[in-house]
């Protein structure tokens, strides 16, 4: 039996071994200590998250438990539950809360109904090229200022606006300024945030599943109801979280197209500004936070977050 | 017995994607109860033909008929054929039982009845007790069986299988081949099986259509395809072939045309030994590859071509240490197959009624 000794072809340069530098030794050390690596990686974002979100939320909660001196207008740091109780029992706050939640739910519903067919067309029907164009088209409104878009809708919905001009021949008329106008405008503003997750969710549904459903005798409606909708349910929920929470905190749109109607954001705004009652504003601001937490908890019970 | 009309008839079937003719005028009759394979390299149009039969694609021209009924314009859910997909296409959010019962559910069968039938179907693929699991919890072979149960529970007139064993490992694939064959015999329906694996096609099929560039290159029984390939493409794609072009044929066989000889029909001997065959050519042993039950020997012939010889392993075989030595390669005249120079037109292909050749 012979053993072949590997021979180097003549003229081929030797591949050098990696050089031993400080950076290299540092990399070796980090790759052997995964916990240290992880803490170095996470310390900056965790610091930021702690400072910006948790501290700000805590400050909000604490402020809500203080009160304002009626004579001097300064915040006195005496602990009281008066603000919380006022917000929970005051009929104004209850009405505005119900109105705000109603608007947010309707905006979410309208957005989902519009987003579903658009996202389906983008993900399953359009060619690859058209798909890219449509994604850009959906994102394009986000390039314009929020205020510009809200004022654009104010113009569209005005007495002699485009909307009136469009529907007048069919006997219709503009809804004018009020809650319907608020719902229309907010639906428009948040639509991209609802289309994109649903589009991404549909992208993940393989075409072969739709073909399999048709192959087994499922017509269009059965396929949508039994295969597509259950599979993109988490994506729909994700989109709804955007439109619902964004609507819940909005106060500018309702100011511009909402007529005399107020939403929770307006109450916060007036209490911070004109009324100079920061503790009460903080107490009001807790309402949407509680509602969002309740919404997330309800969503979690449906199991929609398991597959995110 | 079988109706006098074929289970599936394709006439002039053509499908173009842009400038590419994916399927180029395919005429084909497939009989009821037949295990029919469509074999070809990727891009040869075999899967497109399957998708045209299922209704996922619309033909550019030509027709698809099922039992004499033209179904070309019908939607997939309106055709009595079912498909087993390459990726199985099981619904990930449904249990195995609901997956199998899906076809019955959309037909409006009540829950209890459809679950009973689905359980029965799961039993035929040896998956009793797996009904409550999700497809994600099953192995590849089990998913494959669920897909089979789901497609057969609605009792289609033909089952279309798109490379169903492609994702399985070798042992499982061999086992599933046996199960597929048994299932087909049990159900008695037509199976149309798309594969690029020539061995699989030869093992399973009653008849094979070899596809190349959107056309059927050859149609026949496995033995016909293997022993009497009509063209260099079929000879090279189905198994391995040693092809002798016109010049070499004149040199070795004394006649023109293109010929092929299978490696296992060739014999090899050392230069000094006689091998007693009709033809003999000398050459140099270039490579010896041991493949377990046999050895593949690659020989550079003096006439300027390279051939492969397959030899059973026995005591006196030509060994690896003889690389570079001079050898003789021989074969018999009856193992020489004459090939058509160019792909023959689809019109001349033998159809369903082709009689078995009298002599082999």
From TrEMBL, chain A:
Entry similarity comment: Belongs to the binding-protein-dependent transport system permease family. CysTW subfamily.
Gene source species: Cryobacterium algoritolerans
Predominant subcellular localization, coarse grouping: membrane
Keywords: Cell membrane, Membrane, Transmembrane, Transmembrane helix, Transport
Keyword Membrane part of the UniProt annotation: yes
Protein name: ABC transporter permease
Transmembrane feature ranges: 40-66, 101-121, 133-153, 177-202, 223-244, 278-298
Pfam annotation, one family: BPD_transp_1
Protein's GO biological process: transmembrane transport
GO cellular component entries: plasma membrane
Record's subcellular location: Cell membrane
Limits of the ABC transmembrane type-1 domain: 97-297
Membrane topology of this protein: Multi-pass membrane protein
UniProt xrefs under InterPro entries: MetI-like, MetI-like_sf
From TrEMBL, chain B:
Source species of the chain: Cryobacterium algoritolerans
GO molecular-function terms, A-Z: ATP binding; ATP hydrolysis activity; transmembrane transporter activity
Protein name listed in UniProt: ABC transporter ATP-binding protein
Domain of life of the source: Bacteria
SUPFAM superfamilies to which the protein is assigned, alphabetical: MOP-like, P-loop containing nucleoside triphosphate hydrolases
Keywords: ATP-binding, Nucleotide-binding, Transport
Record-level GO cellular component terms: ATP-binding cassette (ABC) transporter complex
Domain ABC transporter, residue spans: 8-238
């Amino acid at each position: 039996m012979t053993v072949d000794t590997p021979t180097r072809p003549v003229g081929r340069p030797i591949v050098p071994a990696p050089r031993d530098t400080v950076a290299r030794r540092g990399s070796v050390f980090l790759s052997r200590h995964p916990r240290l690596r992880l803490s170095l990686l996470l310390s900056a974002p965790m610091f930021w998250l702690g400072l910006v979100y948790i501290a700000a939320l805590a400050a909000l909660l604490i402020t809500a438990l203080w009160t304002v001196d009626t004579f001097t207008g300064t915040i006195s740091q005496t602990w009281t539950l008066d603000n919380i109780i006022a917000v929970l029992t005051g009929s104004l706050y209850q009405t505005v809360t119900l109105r705000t939640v109603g608007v947010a739910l309707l905006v979410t519903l309208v957005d989902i109904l519009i987003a579903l067919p658009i996202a389906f067309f983008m993900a399953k029907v359009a060619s690859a090229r058209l798909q890219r164009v449509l994604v850009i088209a959906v994102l394009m409104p986000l390039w314009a200022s929020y205020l510009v878009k809200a004022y654009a809708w104010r113009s569209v919905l005005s007495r002699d606006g485009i909307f009136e001009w469009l529907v007048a021949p069919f006997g219709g008329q503009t809804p004018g300024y009020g809650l319907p106008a608020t719902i229309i405008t907010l639906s428009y503003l948040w639509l991209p945030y609802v289309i994109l997750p649903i589009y991404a969710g549909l992208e993940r549904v393989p075409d072969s599943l739709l073909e399999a459903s048709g192959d087994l005798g499922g017509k269009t409606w059965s396929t949508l109801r039994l295969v597509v909708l259950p599979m993109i349910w988490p994506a729909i929920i994700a989109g709804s979280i955007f439109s619902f929470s964004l609507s819940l905190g909005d106060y500018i749109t309702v100011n511009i197209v909402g007529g005399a109607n107020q939403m929770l954001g307006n109450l916060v705004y007036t209490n911070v500004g004109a009324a100079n009652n920061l503790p009460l504003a903080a107490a009001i601001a807790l309402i949407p936070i509680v509602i969002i937490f309740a919404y997330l908890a309800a969503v979690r019970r449906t199991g929609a977050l398991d597959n995110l | 017995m079988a109706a006098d009309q074929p289970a599936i008839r394709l006439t002039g079937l053509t499908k173009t994607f842009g400038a590419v003719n994916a399927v180029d005028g395919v005429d084909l009759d497939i009989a009821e109860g037949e295990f029919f394979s469509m074999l070809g390299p990727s891009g040869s149009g075999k899967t497109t033909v399957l998708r045209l039969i299922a209704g996922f694609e619309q033909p550019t021209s030509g027709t698809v008929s099922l039992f004499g009924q033209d179904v070309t314009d019908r939607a997939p859910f309106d055709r009595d054929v079912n498909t087993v997909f390459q990726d199985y296409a099981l619904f990930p959010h449904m249990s195995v039982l609901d997956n199998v019962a899906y076809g019955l559910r959309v037909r409006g069968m009540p829950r209890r009845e459809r679950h009973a039938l689905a359980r029965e179907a799961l039993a035929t693929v040896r998956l009793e007790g797996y009904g409550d699991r999700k497809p994600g919890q099953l192995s590849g072979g089990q998913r494959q069986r669920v897909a089979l149960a789901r497609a057969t529970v609605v009792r289609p007139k033909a089952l279309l299988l798109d490379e169903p064993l492609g994702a399985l490992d070798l042992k499982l694939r061999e086992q599933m081949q046996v199960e597929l064959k048994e299932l087909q015999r049990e159900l008695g329906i037509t199976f149309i099986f798309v594969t690029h694996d020539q061995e699989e096609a030869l093992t399973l099929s009653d008849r094979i259509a070899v596809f190349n560039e959107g056309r059927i290159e050859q149609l026949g029984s496995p033995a016909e395809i293997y022993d009497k390939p009509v063209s260099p493409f079929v000879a090279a794609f189905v198994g391995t072939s040693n092809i002798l072009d016109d010049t070499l044929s004149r040199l070795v066989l004394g006649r023109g045309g293109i010929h092929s000889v299978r490696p296992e029909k060739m014999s090899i001997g050392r230069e000094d030994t006689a091998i007693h065959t009709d033809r003999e050519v000398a050459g140099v042993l270039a490579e010896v590859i041991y493949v377990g039950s046999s050895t593949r020997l690659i020989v550079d012939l003096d006439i300027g071509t390279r051939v492969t010889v397959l030899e059973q392993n026995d005591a006196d075989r030509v060994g690896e240490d003889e690389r570079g030595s001079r050898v003789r390669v021989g074969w018999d005249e009856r193992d020489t197959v004459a090939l058509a120079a160019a792909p023959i037109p689809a019109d001349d292909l033998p159809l369903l009624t082709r009689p078995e050749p009298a002599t082999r």
